[in-house]
Amino acid sequence: LRAAGGWKRVNEALDTPPLSTEQILHPEKYLKEVDAPREVLLPDFAPVLGPGWKRLYADTFGEWMISVSVRIMTADGVKGIRAGAGWDGDRAVIHVQEGASCLFWGSVWDSEKDAEEFREFLDSGLAARKPPAEPYLVTRSGERVFAAVGPVSPEVLAAAAKLFDKEATIK
Length: 171
Hints:
Helix content is 46%, strand content 25%. It is of the alpha+beta class.
Protein backbone atom coordinates (compact mmCIF):
# COMPACT_ATOMS: atom_id res chain seq x y z
CA LEU A 1 0.00 0.00 0.00
CA ARG A 2 2.74 2.39 0.91
CA ALA A 3 4.49 1.75 -2.41
CA ALA A 4 1.22 2.39 -4.24
CA GLY A 5 0.38 5.69 -2.56
CA GLY A 6 2.57 6.46 0.41
CA TRP A 7 1.38 6.80 3.97
CA LYS A 8 -1.74 8.57 2.74
CA ARG A 9 -2.83 5.32 1.04
CA VAL A 10 -2.02 3.31 4.16
CA ASN A 11 -4.18 5.65 6.24
CA GLU A 12 -7.01 5.41 3.71
CA ALA A 13 -6.86 1.61 4.02
CA LEU A 14 -7.45 1.92 7.75
CA ASP A 15 -10.70 3.74 6.99
CA THR A 16 -11.66 1.44 4.10
CA PRO A 17 -9.99 -1.94 4.65
CA PRO A 18 -9.99 -4.78 2.11
CA LEU A 19 -13.29 -6.63 1.97
CA SER A 20 -11.81 -10.11 1.52
CA THR A 21 -8.65 -12.17 1.61
CA GLU A 22 -8.81 -12.07 -2.19
CA GLN A 23 -8.07 -8.33 -2.04
CA ILE A 24 -5.17 -8.93 0.34
CA LEU A 25 -3.68 -11.71 -1.81
CA HIS A 26 -4.20 -9.67 -5.00
CA PRO A 27 -3.71 -5.99 -4.08
CA GLU A 28 -4.69 -4.89 -7.59
CA LYS A 29 -8.24 -6.05 -6.78
CA TYR A 30 -8.24 -3.51 -3.96
CA LEU A 31 -5.98 -0.73 -5.19
CA LYS A 32 -7.13 -0.28 -8.79
CA GLU A 33 -10.66 -1.42 -9.46
CA VAL A 34 -12.27 -2.81 -6.34
CA ASP A 35 -13.32 -6.43 -6.91
CA ALA A 36 -15.84 -6.76 -4.08
CA PRO A 37 -16.79 -10.32 -3.13
CA ARG A 38 -20.26 -11.50 -4.01
CA GLU A 39 -22.54 -12.46 -1.15
CA VAL A 40 -23.75 -16.07 -1.09
CA LEU A 41 -26.99 -16.58 0.84
CA LEU A 42 -27.64 -20.24 1.61
CA PRO A 43 -31.07 -21.77 2.12
CA ASP A 44 -32.07 -23.50 5.35
CA PHE A 45 -30.84 -27.10 5.02
CA ALA A 46 -32.62 -28.35 8.17
CA PRO A 47 -35.67 -29.62 6.22
CA VAL A 48 -33.53 -31.94 4.08
CA LEU A 49 -31.59 -33.20 7.10
CA GLY A 50 -34.67 -34.08 9.12
CA PRO A 51 -35.49 -33.74 12.81
CA GLY A 52 -32.82 -33.16 15.44
CA TRP A 53 -30.30 -31.28 13.29
CA LYS A 54 -29.44 -27.75 14.40
CA ARG A 55 -27.45 -25.05 12.66
CA LEU A 56 -24.26 -24.50 14.66
CA TYR A 57 -22.07 -22.18 12.61
CA ALA A 58 -21.95 -20.16 9.40
CA ASP A 59 -19.05 -18.24 7.88
CA THR A 60 -17.22 -17.27 4.71
CA PHE A 61 -14.01 -19.14 3.91
CA GLY A 62 -12.57 -16.75 1.32
CA GLU A 63 -9.80 -17.33 -1.19
CA TRP A 64 -7.06 -17.77 1.39
CA MET A 65 -8.85 -20.48 3.42
CA ILE A 66 -9.87 -22.28 0.24
CA SER A 67 -6.25 -22.33 -0.91
CA VAL A 68 -5.06 -23.62 2.47
CA SER A 69 -7.78 -26.30 2.60
CA VAL A 70 -6.97 -27.65 -0.87
CA ARG A 71 -3.24 -27.59 -0.04
CA ILE A 72 -3.94 -29.70 3.05
CA MET A 73 -6.24 -32.14 1.22
CA THR A 74 -3.94 -32.62 -1.76
CA ALA A 75 -0.52 -31.95 -0.15
CA ASP A 76 0.15 -29.76 -3.18
CA GLY A 77 0.82 -26.05 -2.65
CA VAL A 78 0.46 -25.17 -6.33
CA LYS A 79 -2.95 -26.87 -6.52
CA GLY A 80 -3.99 -24.95 -3.41
CA ILE A 81 -3.08 -21.60 -4.93
CA ARG A 82 -4.77 -22.48 -8.23
CA ALA A 83 -7.89 -23.75 -6.43
CA GLY A 84 -8.52 -20.41 -4.75
CA ALA A 85 -7.85 -18.30 -7.84
CA GLY A 86 -11.05 -16.97 -9.33
CA TRP A 87 -12.94 -17.00 -6.02
CA ASP A 88 -15.74 -14.44 -5.97
CA GLY A 89 -17.66 -15.34 -2.80
CA ASP A 90 -18.77 -18.22 -0.61
CA ARG A 91 -20.70 -19.23 2.48
CA ALA A 92 -20.54 -22.38 4.57
CA VAL A 93 -22.87 -23.63 7.26
CA ILE A 94 -22.47 -26.51 9.70
CA HIS A 95 -25.41 -28.42 11.15
CA VAL A 96 -24.97 -30.78 14.11
CA GLN A 97 -26.87 -33.62 15.72
CA GLU A 98 -25.68 -35.77 18.65
CA GLY A 99 -21.98 -35.47 17.85
CA ALA A 100 -22.38 -35.67 14.07
CA SER A 101 -21.91 -32.70 11.76
CA CYS A 102 -22.77 -31.83 8.17
CA LEU A 103 -21.08 -29.09 6.17
CA PHE A 104 -22.92 -27.32 3.37
CA TRP A 105 -20.82 -24.94 1.30
CA GLY A 106 -21.82 -22.76 -1.62
CA SER A 107 -19.40 -20.67 -3.65
CA VAL A 108 -19.38 -18.44 -6.69
CA TRP A 109 -16.45 -17.97 -9.08
CA ASP A 110 -15.29 -15.37 -11.59
CA SER A 111 -15.94 -17.74 -14.50
CA GLU A 112 -17.32 -21.18 -15.29
CA LYS A 113 -13.74 -22.31 -15.94
CA ASP A 114 -12.67 -21.21 -12.43
CA ALA A 115 -15.72 -22.94 -10.94
CA GLU A 116 -15.00 -26.19 -12.76
CA GLU A 117 -11.35 -26.13 -11.77
CA PHE A 118 -12.30 -25.62 -8.12
CA ARG A 119 -14.94 -28.37 -8.31
CA GLU A 120 -12.31 -30.76 -9.65
CA PHE A 121 -9.79 -29.84 -6.92
CA LEU A 122 -12.38 -30.15 -4.16
CA ASP A 123 -13.81 -33.41 -5.49
CA SER A 124 -10.37 -35.01 -5.80
CA GLY A 125 -9.35 -33.78 -2.35
CA LEU A 126 -12.48 -35.17 -0.72
CA ALA A 127 -12.17 -38.45 -2.61
CA ALA A 128 -8.59 -38.88 -1.38
CA ARG A 129 -9.53 -38.78 2.30
CA LYS A 130 -8.63 -41.89 4.23
CA PRO A 131 -11.43 -44.16 5.49
CA PRO A 132 -13.63 -43.88 7.36
CA ALA A 133 -14.50 -40.86 5.26
CA GLU A 134 -17.97 -39.38 5.43
CA PRO A 135 -20.12 -39.26 2.30
CA TYR A 136 -19.84 -36.13 0.20
CA LEU A 137 -21.17 -34.50 -2.94
CA VAL A 138 -19.66 -31.71 -5.05
CA THR A 139 -21.68 -30.14 -7.88
CA ARG A 140 -21.29 -27.22 -10.26
CA SER A 141 -23.84 -25.15 -12.09
CA GLY A 142 -22.36 -22.34 -14.17
CA GLU A 143 -20.18 -20.21 -11.90
CA ARG A 144 -21.59 -21.80 -8.73
CA VAL A 145 -20.13 -24.75 -6.81
CA PHE A 146 -21.90 -26.59 -4.00
CA ALA A 147 -20.38 -29.12 -1.60
CA ALA A 148 -21.99 -31.18 1.14
CA VAL A 149 -20.13 -33.48 3.53
CA GLY A 150 -21.59 -35.45 6.40
CA PRO A 151 -22.82 -38.75 7.83
CA VAL A 152 -26.06 -38.77 5.85
CA SER A 153 -27.38 -40.71 2.87
CA PRO A 154 -26.50 -39.84 -0.73
CA GLU A 155 -30.18 -38.92 -1.15
CA VAL A 156 -29.90 -36.26 1.57
CA LEU A 157 -26.75 -34.85 -0.04
CA ALA A 158 -28.51 -34.75 -3.43
CA ALA A 159 -31.57 -33.06 -1.90
CA ALA A 160 -29.30 -30.42 -0.34
CA ALA A 161 -27.67 -29.78 -3.74
CA LYS A 162 -31.10 -29.37 -5.35
CA LEU A 163 -32.14 -26.97 -2.58
CA PHE A 164 -28.96 -24.95 -3.15
CA ASP A 165 -29.61 -24.78 -6.91
CA LYS A 166 -33.22 -23.72 -6.34
CA GLU A 167 -33.00 -21.33 -3.36
CA ALA A 168 -29.45 -20.01 -2.90
CA THR A 169 -29.06 -16.33 -3.71
CA ILE A 170 -25.90 -14.77 -5.10
CA LYS A 171 -25.70 -11.00 -4.79
